[in-house]
Specification:
Length: 176
């Protein structure tokens, strides 16, 4: 089989899709909750209007994927497969994170069972912490067991500290 045969390309796109979760987890934990907090903070606060500054991250990732598609057009199908994987992850993230969890869609659906419920709950726990530090559950496709996350939150003690107003960030801002 050739590297540019379609089953290989599909496999690469799928692998990139899965790999994006690791990348997204790391970017969320080490960039967005670190030096990239300037953009991400808006996502941990009440949103005013349709957009938040954090959406700029999606713009950057989309621009990168588009660039890869352009390169692929010059005869690099492998690059196209990578771009497809990134785009699929973006679409999934947009549907589940922005739609299901944050209800930025015109319709509401709250999953009451199965893995979808766990995904939503895990991300809600991420948002239980308003500030930059001491959060849990930075990934998305993979949600750790909920009781593990609640235990971790309790150990970190961030939520309680924020309620007492000990944290440097504005703990009064609520976002559910
Ligand atoms: Zn976050
Ligand atoms: Zn979120």
């Amino acid at each position: 089989m050739n590297m540019t045969d379609w089953p290989v390309l599909v496999a690469i796109a799928f692998a990139v899709f899965l790999g994006m979760e690791v990348f997204a987890w790391a970017a969320h934990k080490y960039i967005m909750h670190s030096w990239g907090w300037g953009w991400h903070q808006s996502h941990h606060e009440e949103r005013e209007g349709w957009f938040e500054k954090n959406d700029l991250y999606a713009v950057v990732f989309a621009a990168f994927a588009i660039l890869l598609f352009v390169i692929a057009n010059y005869g690099y199908p492998l690059v196209g497969a990578v771009a497809t994987g990134i785009t699929l992850y973006g679409a999934f993230y947009f549907i589940v994170h922005d739609g299901l969890v944050h209800q930025r869609w015109p319709f509401r659906h709250i999953p009451h069972k199965g893995y979808a419920k766990r995904l939503v709950q895990a991300h809600r726990l991420h948002h239980a912490v308003k500030g930059k530090d001491g959060g849990v559950s930075f990934g998305f496709l993979y949600a750790p067991p909920i009781d593990k996350l609640t235990r971790q939150l309790r150990t970190e003690g961030t939520v309680a500290a924020e309620r007492r107003g000990e944290s440097g960030t504005d703990a009064s801002a609520t976002r559910h």
